[in-house]
Design goal:
Oligomer: single chain
Structural class: alpha+beta
Strand order of the largest sheet: 1-2-15-11-12-10-13-3-14
Strand content: 15-25%
Largest sheet: 9 strands, mixed
Number of helices: 12
Radius of gyration: 22 Å
Distance between the termini: 29 Å
């Protein structure tokens, strides 16, 4: 079996090229023994998540690895046999944050309770680099009575944070769910309302979290909505209810992401679909093999990752607290990993 798998893998490696990144990027090849906690992880759980998206990877070496993964008998051996750990650095400190899928309450028809619509992107906004601001969309009648509403929800604050996350699901009164995914934006640059509260002297930087912001907005019925409009960026959605309720939302690879096994990365440094060894330090240390299956506008840098925590309020609270240092190491196909080495080091 080992000989067969090697034949499958190396048949696709000749066309391999390193991931394109900045010139000042540094690469360091490691041994698996140098990965803290590697021996204790559930490698099969990571392999299951890898198989969820590897068939969509375009490079021949990754596709060959995907074929090999589908017939493997031991997940840990598979990773150790066909990958090499590569630590990629761009000179910036590592930072781990968390994200989640919000769950809102809503209905397919507006009512006195469900008054805040989740909109599809209007056709005229698709062909422009910059459309109306958040304030203009909310205060002018440009979106009304056009059939652009997907569903109505009961909380404008949760709707704002749904736009920040970019995807979520809405629970209907009969227990069914409507799932929505990112459908476009108005082209305005995102402004952090947490940073604005710090600038105003309301909070210190270390005090700000999503829950703190939500509570402040709700306590201030006049200033609260105005704070939200400080961010002119507005996100539109599309319905993706074909994704089963027991699966995670769609990531950048158009496949469901998996709780505590999927991360969002900067694809300039980490190929989407690649296994990534995470060594998150801080209060609750995390040592786990995850799969890079998503991206994010704030996820920039070789050592930057956003961990997916799941769906709902509990996941949101956990994700909102995460802001820790550590290290991430990308597992690369063997020949691709060696391609990063200087010639005199090979």
């Amino acid at each position: 079996m080992r000989r067969t798998l090697l034949a499958i893998i190396f048949a696709g490696l000749a066309m391999t090229d390193p991931t394109s990144a900045a010139e000042d990027t540094e690469y360091r090849l490691l041994e698996f023994a140098e990965l803290d906690g590697w021996e204790d992880d559930d490698h099969q759980a990571a392999l299951d998540v890898f198989l969820n998206t590897c068939r969509d990877m375009k490079s021949p070496d990754w596709r060959a690895l995907c074929k090999a993964a589908s017939v493997q008998k031991n997940a840990k051996t598979f990773f150790e046999l066909f990958f090499r750990p590569v630590e990629i650095s761009d000179g910036k400190d590592a930072l781990f944050t968390g994200y989640f899928e919000p769950e809102l309450e809503g209905d397919t028809r507006p009512s006195s309770r469900y008054r805040y619509p989740i909109y599809r992107m209007p056709p005229e906004a698709k062909g422009t680099s910059r459309w109306l601001s958040r304030r203009e969309i909310e205060e002018e009648p440009v979106m009304k009575d056009r059939g652009l509403e997907i569903v109505w929800v009961d909380d404008p604050v949760e709707l704002f944070f749904l736009q920040v996350q970019g995807s979520g699901r809405v629970k209907l009164p009969d227990g069914r769910f409507i799932r929505v995914g990112y459908g476009g934006a108005n082209g305005h640059k995102y402004r952090s309302i947490g940073a604005e509260l710090v600038r105003r002297g309301v909070y210190n930087a270390h005090q700000v979290s999503a829950q703190v912001i939500k509570n402040w907005v709700r306590r201030n019925p006049v200033e609260g909505p105005e704070l939200l409009r400080h961010n002119p960026s507005y996100v539109f959605f599309r319905e993706v209810s074909e994704v089963p309720a027991d699966k995670g939302p769609l990531g950048a690879m158009n496949r469901s992401v998996t709780t505590m096994r999927s991360i969002a990365v900067d694809p300039r440094y980490t190929p989407l679909g690649a296994p990534v060894w995470v060594e998150k330090d801080g209060k609750n240390k995390l040592r786990r093999l995850m799969i890079a299956q998503d991206t994010g506008s704030a996820i920039k840098g070789a050592q930057r990752a956003d961990v997916f925590f799941g769906t709902g309020d509990k996941a949101g609270r956990s994700a909102g607290r995460l802001r820790d240092p550590g290290r991430m190491v990308v597992l690369m196909p063997i020949q691709r990993a060696y391609a990063y080495l200087p010639v005199d080091a090979q």
